[in-house]
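Input chain follows. Return structure tokens only.
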Amino acid sequence: MEYVVYDFPHYAERVITLLLEEKWLIHSFPLSDESEIFNPSSYLYNAEFKGVEYTIHLDLNIYQYILNAFKKDKKNPLHRSAIALVVFAKFTNVKFDPSIAIYEKLNYKKQCPDELIDDLILFRQIDNAEMDHLAEFVLGSSDIFKLPKPAHLERLKLKMKLTEFRRLKKWDTLYALVLKLTELYYCDKGLSNEDKLEAFWRWCHEEFLFSLVATSMAIKLFGKRRIPKLMKYNPKHSVEKNKNHVVNMTWDLFLIDKFFENWVGKLDKQEFIYASNDKPFQEVLKAAIKIQNEGKGVELAEDLSTRLISSFVSTFDQVENQQGRRITSVTDFSSFREGVINNYEQVLKVVS
């Protein structure tokens, strides 16, 4: 039997221990031990012998922690953990993709601020910095680290690329789903949480679109193991604040949907990992991954009652055969969706 031995820097174990404590990485790999996601040998072996290319997609929080590790005078543990992730990616040859974080920060503005381009340049400098210097920062031996010269970027072309599309794909659909979840959460007082979950499934299938990621969020909002922090909207908040909250919830769904878009559409040699410190977000994504992997036979007893599991399976069956789809009579879905959005924005009083 042949063995492959990889040589890692002396600080590798301490870096991995720090990341194990944070539990930032979410994935779709069938691991029996979750700590294996930080096994550096696996990444190198799969890259060398199987040609697998790994990419870590960063959420906005972790992207900001990486930037602030250099920007901020006062350092905190999150800054060091974020740079630990950079160091880990270096000795495993894993790539970063910060595009989702950048688009979230852009937040659909028609003009791209110079600050956003400056941040991307800084991120690439940090990503290209000497691993040993970054490790000293991670381990607390230093509060600063050296950066290489910035790579040349054609700022104008990059700005045009980032603002090429006014809306990201699927945004309006996910926004409508979030509005419906919010309306059920606060406006349908006469329904139990179980009834709300069934009502959401029926509405998605019959009146709108069935969404795996929205279903997973609904399960965590109305199921047995509810996560109240997922619901950011609250009627007592101002219109502007609640509008921002609904947009933020839509970003959560968009990030999860993007994970599945990458996962389903990936090439055989590509693997995607998400890095996020948002625990409620992580739980929704993990639920969605579980459902995607196991289908309607998924074990959801911890989240759903026996009756709801039966209803969930029934919904899956209806989705597969298009049974009861009243929305099929809609000829202009964009206009229909706009009407749905306008209606629920009025109900929730989040009209811009």
